[in-house]
């Protein structure tokens, strides 16, 4: 509705102003975002080269393509609310959010989108540079590109909702660091950030396809790299939608419960 | 006045058969809030036990609070730290829900947090900021404009008025980070009033500010209340705030309501002494026989005498001493409030 | 010396607060084990496909992971918390309290805070290192052991000086609140031997952000890969950087006192 549209535009302006103030911090953060997939790229390339040029169904250059695309997909779907939330509750900012006649998730979504509107172009340029440096290649067919768009958007929506729900844990405990760490441990392995899923032991592959993590990063990545069949892609999008619905319900339930706890105790 | 008068809470609202509820903006009845806190025990065994079974402590924050506000009133909410003032304000703004009791504000139940309700209220917390820290205040104003669906011309009009009343001009384009505490407070208040709420909750709005700024904000609140007819419920530590703005006060202590009525009446009920200030030549005389000597500076004595004896002692002073000037005053309000609390504690 | 007494006092203050809640220990233990598990799981996956990574045997990589966790623990135990607190105190003005104390501000900053629970990581890293060394057949000569300890010490001094330089920058760049995370991000790369990385990255991880001195170089000493030049460079760099960072720190203090209201 028009109200939300105007709200998002205004939040975009606010986020942009803030990002401009913190541009140096942003650069530092982006370095980290590039380095992690880059390290795995190099390690796997080394393994591949030492193994006769390939590991499983990934050649050395295929690894390069994989991790570079992964870096961009990860960046597109990334959120950071769960690091913030405990601070917000402690500093009373959540009270002000609760005083407003609008659900606080909207400002987080808008903030997230605006940040990426700035960082993604920069990272894309870096990705292209890395692509040349490591001889990565990308061969796409029309249907891949067409299906990549919903695949990526669904991945973003799913990951955002899951991680926003995760952030609400701050209502019940101050040990959010431990909880976040568990989440990221699972995400790291099951989403394909440490190694492409097909290189992991078979039981883990199955677990990854049942849990939502793979569908937030690994799936769109493999889609664009042409590693999935047309039917497999459609099935994948179906699973994404299913998980999206689950996470929507989860967000509502957890948020409501969280507000109840918060309004029983205050701070 | 018997001592019994002082220990029973003075609260016309809690009497039955009061004015009809529909005339009131805020109606609170029997509001209570008890916090359940986990007891933290020491020792290895207790810690292990504590993981599975926590012993719970009940901490009462509010007990059976009842009072009302009529439209356009500015009511002061007084009490020492931890008395339950902030808890009450948070409940009325929907941030907390009570353990028992009811409250109706503008016809809504606050803790249901209905959007239509939130649209009409505002909460300003003296120690917390709602403005975004790193960007100019005007950006946060714009954000509020959209959130509260304020029509553009209304927004511009009210912004102009608030800028005038609070002298915001050059402050709006500076990042909030760079403003002094007083300047930030002015912007906070403005941001909270952009949507012209009918009910304004102020939690220690002048805390930490210098005297000039306090006076300015006080003047603003009075002016705002005059112009827009908003109902204001304000907590404060500073008697000057309350004395300047509130005809009526609600006094709360240990979560219980002690007094609800006109400030003048509070002073009358709980004042048993008066202060006599006389000007003599110097500070050489011993005035102990007339009353308690509080201080003397350059011949200016401050004496504390029982209220009933004021006339008699004044007469004697004028007769016995070369008095240049004489003044009879009420004790400072702080002292009165202190007395209310101390007597209640006994 | 007063320094030692100060260190003891700060230690006690930091520790007392944390130990009041013994559940903290279990939670931190859990997190440390999870962190180690992450590193080891990655290690396991890689080595399910190969026997040698850029010339490094699995157990040598294991030793590297051990040193990585150990040094990471030392950094987050003794170096990082004090620096973070300093940056925060410059932002909110409480640094003035540090300046008015009669002790050297650099010392107070450096030891003012410790991450007590990082002792767990130090322990885990050390245990992993020992296990790896045992599996390597225990062919560690006395000279290699001394070289290892020397490189560990040099590495720690280099890291400390580097952190101090970054932190001193906070006197000028008040808004770069996450300046220390430059190191944290790059440190991730220290989990693997830097010889794997292309030239420009290797250079960056050695001379721009000295991750190599913390992880790869000490382990090279243990696995007999260390040559004289590297050893000498490390020692000279340690001394030089320490002196340079202290000089820079003094410059930063002068700037702060000059411009502070």
Summarize the structure.
By secondary structure, chain A is mainly α.
Topology:
The complex is a heterotrimer of chains A (267), B (346) and C (261).
Chain A: H1 2-21, H2 23-50, E1 54-55, E2 58-59, H3 60-77, H4 81-90, H5 93-99, H6 105-133, H7 142-167, H8 176-190, H9 202-210, H10 213-216, H11 218-224, H12 230-265
Helix pairs in contact in A: 1-6, 2-3, 3-6, 3-11, 4-7, 7-11, 7-12
Chain B: H1 3-7, E1 26-38, H2 44-52, E2 56-69, E3 74-78, H3 85-92, E4 100-105, H4 115-118, E5 121-125, H5 137-147, H6 152-166, H7 181-193, E6 199-203, H8 211-228, E7 231-235, H9 239-245, E8 248-253, E9 256-262, H10 263-270, E10 273-279, E11 292-297, E12 300-306, H11 310-320, E13 325-329, H12 333-345
Parallel strand pairs in B: 3-7, 3-8, 5-6, 6-7
Antiparallel strand pairs in B: 1-2, 1-4, 8-9, 10-12, 10-13, 11-12
Helix pairs in contact in B: 5-7, 6-7
Chain C: H1 2-19, H2 23-47, H3 58-92, H4 95-99, H5 105-111, H6 118-135, H7 142-169, H8 181-187, H9 199-208, H10 211-214, H11 216-222, H12 228-259
Please, could you describe this protein's structure?
The complex is a heterotrimer of chains A (267), B (346) and C (261). With 267 residues, chain A is mostly helical. Chain A is built from 12 helices and 2 strands, in the order H-H-E-E-H-H-H-H-H-H-H-H-H-H. Chain A has a two-stranded antiparallel sheet with strand order 1-2. In chain A, helix 3 runs antiparallel to helix 6 (105-133). Chain B is built from 12 helices and 13 strands. In chain B, strand 6 (199-203), helix 8 (211-228) and strand 7 (231-235) form a beta-alpha-beta unit. In chain B, helix 5 runs parallel beside helix 7. The radius of gyration of chain B is 24 Å and the shape is globular. The model of chain B is unreliable at 1-7 and 14-21 (pLDDT under 50). Chain C has one domain. In chain C, 75% of the residues lie in helices and 0% in strands. In chain C, helix 2 (23-47) packs parallel to helix 6 (118-135). The radius of gyration of chain C is 19 Å and the shape is globular. Chain C starts with a helix and ends with a helix. The model of chain C has no long low-confidence stretch (mean pLDDT 85). Chains A and C meet through helix 2 and helix 8 of A and helix 2 and helix 8 of C.
């Amino acid at each position: 509705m028009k109200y939300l549209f105007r709200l998002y535009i205004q939040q975009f302006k606010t986020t942009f102003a803030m990002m401009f103030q913190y541009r140096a911090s942003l650069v530092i953060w982006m370095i980290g975002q590039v380095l992690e997939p880059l390290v795995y790229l190099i390690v796997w390339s080394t393994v591949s080269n030492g193994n006769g040029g390939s590991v499983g169904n990934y050649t050395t250059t295929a690894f390069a393509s994989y991790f570079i695309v992964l870096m961009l997909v990860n960046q597109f779907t990334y959120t950071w609310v769960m690091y913030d939330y405990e601070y917000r509750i402690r500093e009373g900012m959540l009270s002000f959010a609760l005083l407003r006649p609008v659900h606080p998730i909207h400002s987080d979504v808008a903030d997230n989108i605006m940040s990426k509107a700035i960082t993604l172009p920069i990272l894309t340029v870096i990705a292209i540079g890395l692509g040349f440096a490591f001889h990565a290649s990308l061969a796409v067919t029309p249907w891949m590109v067409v299906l990549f768009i919903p695949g990526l958007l669904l991945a973003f929506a799913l990951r955002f909702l899951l991680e926003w729900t995760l952030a609400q844990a701050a209502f019940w405990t101050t040990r959010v660091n431990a909880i976040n760490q568990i989440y990221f441990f699972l995400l790291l392995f099951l989403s394909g950030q440490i190694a492409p899923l097909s290189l992991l032991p078979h039981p883990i592959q199955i677990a990854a396809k049942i849990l939502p993590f793979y569908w937030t990063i690994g799936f769109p990545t493999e889609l664009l790299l042409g590693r999935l069949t047309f039917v497999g892609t459609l099935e994948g999008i179906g699973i994404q939608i299913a998980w999206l619905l689950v996470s929507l319900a989860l967000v509502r339930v957890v948020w409501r419960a969280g507000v109840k706890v918060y309004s029983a105790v205050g701070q | 006045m018997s001592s019994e008068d002082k220990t029973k809470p003075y609260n016309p609202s809690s009497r039955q058969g009061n004015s009809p509820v529909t005339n009131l903006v805020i109606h609170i009845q029997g509001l209570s809030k008890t916090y359940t806190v986990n007891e933290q025990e020491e020792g290895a065994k207790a810690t292990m036990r504590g993981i599975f079974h926590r012993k719970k402590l009940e901490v009462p924050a509010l007990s059976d609070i009842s009072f009302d506000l009529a439209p356009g009133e500015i009511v002061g909410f007084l009490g020492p730290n931890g008395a339950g003032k902030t808890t009450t304000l948070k409940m009325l703004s929907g941030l907390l829900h009570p353990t028992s009791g009811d409250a109706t504000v503008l016809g809504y139940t606050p803790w249901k947090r209905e959007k239509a309700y939130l649209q009409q209220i505002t909460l300003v917390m003296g120690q917390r900021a709602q403005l975004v820290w790193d960007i100019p205040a005007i950006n946060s104003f714009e954000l509020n404009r959209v959130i509260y669906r304020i029509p553009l011309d209304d927004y511009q009009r009210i912004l102009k008025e608030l800028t005038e009343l609070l002298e915001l001009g050059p402050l709006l384009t500076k990042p909030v980070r760079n403003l002094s505490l007083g300047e930030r407070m002015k912007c906070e208040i403005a941001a909270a009033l952009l949507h012209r709420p009918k009910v304004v909750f102020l939690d220690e709005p002048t805390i930490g500010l210098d005297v000039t700024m306090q006076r300015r904000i006080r003047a603003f609140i009075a002016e705002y209340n005059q112009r827009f007819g908003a109902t204001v419920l304000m907590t404060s530590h500073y008697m000057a705030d309350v004395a300047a703005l509130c005809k009526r006060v609600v006094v709360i202590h240990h979560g219980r309501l002690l007094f609800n009525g006109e400030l003048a009446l509070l002073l009358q009920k709980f004042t048993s002494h008066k202060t006599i200030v006389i000007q003599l030549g110097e500070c050489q005389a011993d005035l102990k026989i007339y009353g308690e000597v509080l201080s003397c500076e350059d011949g200016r004595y401050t004496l504390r005498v029982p209220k009933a004896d004021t006339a008699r002692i004044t007469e004697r002073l004028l007769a016995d001493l070369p008095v240049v000037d004489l003044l009879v005053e009420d004790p400072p309000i702080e002292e009165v409030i202190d007395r209310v609390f101390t007597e209640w504690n006994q | 010396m007063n320094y030692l007494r100060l260190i003891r006092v700060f230690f006690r203050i930091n520790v007392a607060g944390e130990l009041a809640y013994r559940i903290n220990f279990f939670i931190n233990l859990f997190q440390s084990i999870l962190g180690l598990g992450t590193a080891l799981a990655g290690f396991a996956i890689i080595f399910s496909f190969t026997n040698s990574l850029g010339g490094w045997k699995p157990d040598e990589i294991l030793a590297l992971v051990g040193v990585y966790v150990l040094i990471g623990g030392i950094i987050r135990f003794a170096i990082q918390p004090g620096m973070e607190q300093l940056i925060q105190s410059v932002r909110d003005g409480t640094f003035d309290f540090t300046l008015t104390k009669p002790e050297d501000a650099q010392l107070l900053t450096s030891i003012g805070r410790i991450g007590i629970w990082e002792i767990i990581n130090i322990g885990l890293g050390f245990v992993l290192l020992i296990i790896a060394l045992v599996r390597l057949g225990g062919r560690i000569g006395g000279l290699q052991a001394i070289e290892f300890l020397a490189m560990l010490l040099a590495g720690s001094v280099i890291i400390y000086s580097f952190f101090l330089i970054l932190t001193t920058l906070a006197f000028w760049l008040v808004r770069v609140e996450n300046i220390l995370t430059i190191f944290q991000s790059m440190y991730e790369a220290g989990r693997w031997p830097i010889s794997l990385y292309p030239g420009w990255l290797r250079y960056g991880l050695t001379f721009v952000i000295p991750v190599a001195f913390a992880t790869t170089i000490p382990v090279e000493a243990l696995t007999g890969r260390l040559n004289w030049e590297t050893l000498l460079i490390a020692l000279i760099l340690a001394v030089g950087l320490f002196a340079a960072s202290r000089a820079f720190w003094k410059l930063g203090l002068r700037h702060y006192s000059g411009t502070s209201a």
